[in-house]
Amino acid sequence: MGNMEVAGNNRVYRNEIYHHAAEYTQVLQDVASDPALPRTKSVCCAVCGYGEAVFLQATAGDEGMTMFYVCCNPNCGHRWRD
After folding, report:
1. C-alpha separations of 81 from 3, 7, 24, 43, 78 in Å
2. Which of 29, 46, 50, 67 has CB atoms 3.0–4.6 Å from 73's, for a disulfide?
3. Domain residue spans of the chain
4. CA–CA distances in Å: residue 64 to residues 19, 29, 33, 58, 71
């Protein structure tokens, strides 16, 4: 076993992405069809009235955690935050 290098930490990979708060509102339209994302029927789209949305939670700058919603109506795709 020749020379062994000791790792500084056990992390295999880390990807840090930095965004401005305004960038989080630019959610892709097709996110509503992603089966891995959670859905809720406790909200109503203000644009089309559809009663189901996909939701994501993200940190938006100094605002703390912000909930983002995308309407599940395939003809709408309206995005909003709470």
Report:
1. 53, 41, 10, 11, 10
2. 50
3. 27-81
4. 14, 24, 27, 8, 23
pLDDT tens digits, 13-66: 665 666 555 554 444 556 788 888 899 999 999 999 999 999 988 776 666 788
Q: What is the CATH number of domain 27-81?
A: 2.20.25.10
Cα dihedral 19, 21, 24, 26, rounded to 10, equals: -100
Residue 21 near residue 60, CB atoms below 8 Å: yes
